[in-house]
Amino acid sequence: MQALYELDLSPHAPADVVARRIEEASLTEEQARFARELVEGVVEHRAALDDVIGQAATQWPVEQLSAVDRNILRLAIREILMNNGAPIRAAINEAVELAKVYGSDSSARFVNGVLGSVSVSLANKNNAGGEAGPEGED
To answer: Hey, is 13 helix, strand or coil?
Structure first.
């Protein structure tokens, strides 16, 4: 989350940011690999993820969201839609917890609402036989 926040607000190279954050956190190789995959996935599909956020939060232009909320949503939507193996409810719960720690007083409720809308949309698409998400778009 901290790497995504930094990348959103600075011109730093993603690989450099992730490497520094991994070193600072003293992650195991498995944890480091997972962190790199998450950040790379969000960076690679940022436009598609922002489109999903925009469809779920129609009254809030993505660029006007706080950087914290925006990046929590990007991370969670990437986990939900791009099939990294995380159960939808777990991804939503983790995002809400991040919002409680790093966001404003209303962030957790906002993040939960947007992700709830995304999960309903995903369920409707799956029930209709549609595609699950923006994988490969961008």
So the answer is: coil
Looking at residue 105, what DSSP letter applies? T
Question: At 29, which CATH number?
Answer: 1.10.940.10
Residue labelled with tokens 């600072």: 24
Domain of 102 in residue numbering reads as: 2-128
Q: What is the reported pTM?
A: 0.86
SS3 66: coil
* pLDDT tens per residue, range 92-126: 999 999 999 999 999 999 999 999 999 998 877 77
Residue 135 included in any domain:
no
Give helix then strand counts, H and E, for the chain: 7, 0
C-alpha 126/C-alpha 22 separation (Å) is 36
* Count: domains in the chain: 1
